[in-house]
Automatic annotation (TrEMBL):
GO biological process, any: spore germination
Residue ranges of domain Spore germination protein N-terminal in the record: 25-201
Key words, A-Z: Germination, Lipoprotein, Membrane, Palmitate, Signal, Transmembrane, Transmembrane helix
Signal peptide start and end residues: none
Organism: Desulfosporosinus metallidurans
Membrane topology: Lipid-anchor
Pfam families on file: Spore_GerAC, Spore_GerAC_N
Keyword Transmembrane helix: yes
Major location category of this protein: membrane
Protein name: Spore germination protein GerKC
Domain (Spore germination GerAC-like C-terminal): residue spans on this chain: 214-380
């Protein structure tokens, strides 16, 4: 019996290596081009222009036929065209000799022309392919997306790394948005009437072609219809409860030519809907807590009377920012980027079913009230100006 067991154990030990396959399907990075940024533009003859920023490895060299250094030694810029995005991707191998590797891709940048035609078709590959990361940032630029890949990095070795850090820290100013591929697909999957993406440009005030996050881009369904400046963008973020921090600048009491900086510490918002006498009404309530960060005037703003003036001025500024995006959404774009339809569906589902087919016509007619509650919790270490 013991001898039989030993024979069985021996066969098991000898058979184990047959089931250990090892890395039979491994993909050596030496044969891959590591993509850090992707740009999509409208090419000639209705084709897709596909451009990538590729991290330069120790054994990679700039291609003289279809590639360039992009002005920085750490990356290479290459482009190709095709009838579809995937066709253009594979056509790039004819120039690079390497298959593209996407898990390290930071962002997908969409050119103005391709964004106006509709972004769903060109994002389909990135949403469908398992190698693409759903948390990749998606941005829009007013010009050619390929131009953004040529931007010079200031503090990082790659502009892709710098862009990633800029978007992760967008809440420091709350004057742009940070939208991932997953965010967009969630919005559009639920038949959202619109979306808001970050707007990226080359800084016009810097001749070295550095990156600048400048407001946001507005989409009606998946088509670009306009843009928001930084203040309108923060108004949008107030309405969505996405303001993390930032600086509110208000005039000094009795000295309007001088300014005060209030730092936003925390904020929240609530949207309420109502139907009265057949009229749609929405109320946006924002509660904000801030601190006095800087004053360029002499009055002692720490006394209760002056603090009340500061709170009133702060409320007026925030209300104005929110009103700017409400008016633009209702009067210029006729697109519910504020999420009023979602709130109406939540509170009045039966009424929503009756009007959702005509929501594009009903939304601009809705009455919108804005309520801002302000609280100043700190005036800093200096109790009185010097």
């Amino acid at each position: 019996m013991q001898k039989r067991k030993r024979v069985i154990y021996l066969f098991l030990i000898l058979g184990i290596p047959l089931f250990i396959t090892g890395c039979w399907d491994r993909k050596e990075l030496e044969g891959r081009a590591i993509v850090t940024l992707v740009a999509l533009d409208k090419g000639e003859n209705n084709e897709i222009k596909f451009s990538v920023q590729i991290a330069r490895t120790s054994d990679s060299q700039a291609s003289s036929n279809g590639g360039s250094s992009g002005g920085e030694r750490s990356s290479v810029i290459m482009s190709s065209t095709g009838g579809t995005v995937f066709d253009a991707v594979r056509n790039l191998i004819l120039k690079s000799g390497r298959k593209l590797y996407y898990p390290h891709n930071t962002a997908i940048i969409l050119g103005n022309e391709i964004a106006r035609e509709g972004i769903l078709p060109v994002l389909d590959l990135f949403n469908r392919d398992a190698e693409m990361r759903p948390l990749t940032w998606v941005l829009v630029t007013p010009g050619e997306a390929a131009d953004i890949l040529e931007a010079k990095s200031t503090l990082e070795s790659l502009s892709a790394k710098q862009l990633d850090m800029m978007l992760k820290d967008f809440g420091a100013s709350s004057k742009t948005v940070a939208t991932t591929l997953l965010d967009i697909m969630k919005q559009l999957a639920y038949d959202s009437p619109g979306a808001v993406l970050s707007n990226i440009e080359l800084d016009p005030n810097n001749p070295k072609k550095t990156l600048l996050l400048n407001g946001a881009a507005v989409f009606k369904r998946d088509k670009l219809i306009g843009r928001l400046n930084p203040i309108e963008t923060r108004g949008y973020l107030w309405s969505q409860g996405k303001v993390k921090s930032g600086i509110i600048t208000i005039p000094c009491p009795d000295e309007e030519n001088k300014k005060i900086s209030m730092e936003i510490k925390r904020a929240d918002r609530k949207i309420e809907s109502d139907i009265s006498d057949g009229k749609l009404k929405f109320t946006i309530t924002v509660n904000v807590e801030s601190r006095l960060a800087e004053q360029a005037c002499l009055p002692d703003l720490g006394n209760p009377e002056k603090l009340m003036e500061l709170k009133k001025s702060q409320c007026e500024v925030i209300e104005k920012e929110i009103r700017s995006i409400v008016d633009k959404a209702q009067e210029k774009y006729d697109t519910d980027i504020l999420g009023f339809g979602t709130e109406l569906n939540r509170k009045f589902p039966q009424e929503w079913q009756k009007i959702k087919g005509n929501w594009a016509e009903e939304f601009p007619k809705a009455e919108v009230n804005i309520v801002v509650n302000s609280k100043i919790t700190d005036i800093g270490l200096v109790k009185k100006p010097l």
